[in-house]
């Protein structure tokens, strides 16, 4: 099985490739995926596996994707926040869930300090990918996080009310 084999990798690929296609014409923005952080000196092998990273003018985003049959709870969000602690301060996270998020996860993402993880759903991807508006989706989610301290913005509804 290659890097994209197995269950759940399609969501990672669709999300990250959508950004990659949108950003490929820009000079300073890029997408890297998947990769792991290894420690050859300590002989510990892979210390963490990252689904992808998106480097943009808005900042850098580590991406974690979950394709589960139930809504994503707090644990993947807490793990992503922990990974961000060891990165430069301007690095943020994006947690993508095909099945959405529990109410507890939404509250935790919005009220944890700092608010450094944006939540994306399959519906958000549907609202942005076909029109190549993934970066616009990030901008809108960042604005929501800054102005309303909310990590989740329903992009379909936002586009309908603010085209």
Summarize the structure.
This protein is an alpha/beta fold. The protein is 40% helix and 24% strand.
Salient structural properties:
Trna Endonuclease, Chain: A, domain 1, alpha/beta, 7 strands, 163 residues, 6 helices, two-stranded antiparallel sheet, 5-stranded mixed sheet, 24% strand, 40% helix
What does this structure look like?
- With 163 residues, the protein is α/β, with parallel strands linked by helices.
- The chain has one domain (9-161): Trna Endonuclease, Chain: A, domain 1, CATH 3.40.1350.10.
- It has six helices and seven strands.
- The protein has helices at residues 9-23, 74-85, 103-111, 122-128, 134-148, 155-161; strands at residues 30-32, 35-39, 45-50, 52-56, 59-66, 91-97, 117-121.
- The strands form two sheets. Strands 1-4-5-6-7 form a five-stranded mixed beta sheet, sandwiched between helices. The chain has a two-stranded antiparallel ribbon with strand order 2-3.
- It is globular and about 55 Å long.
- The termini are far apart.
- Residues 1-5 have low confidence and may be disordered.
């Amino acid at each position: 099985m290659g890097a994209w084999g197995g269950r759940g990798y399609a969501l990672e690929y669709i999300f990250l490739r959508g950004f990659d296609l949108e950003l490929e014409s820009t000079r300073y923005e890029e997408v890297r995926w998947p990769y792991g952080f290894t420690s050859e000196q300590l002989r510990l092998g892979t210390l963490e596996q990252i689904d992808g990273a998106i480097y943009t003018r808005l900042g850098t985003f580590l991406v974690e994707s979950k394709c589960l049959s139930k809504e994503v709870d707090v644990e993947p969000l807490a793990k992503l926040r922990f990974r961000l602690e060891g990165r430069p301060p301007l690095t943020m996270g994006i947690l993508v869930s095909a099945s959405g998020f529990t109410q507890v996860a939404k509250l935790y993402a919005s009220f944890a300090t700092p608010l450094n993880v944006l939540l994306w759903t399959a519906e958000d991807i549907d609202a942005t990918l076909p029109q190549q508006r993934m970066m616009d989706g990030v901008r809108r989610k960042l604005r929501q996080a800054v102005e309303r301290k909310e990590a989740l913005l329903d992009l379909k509804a936002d586009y309908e009310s603010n085209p």
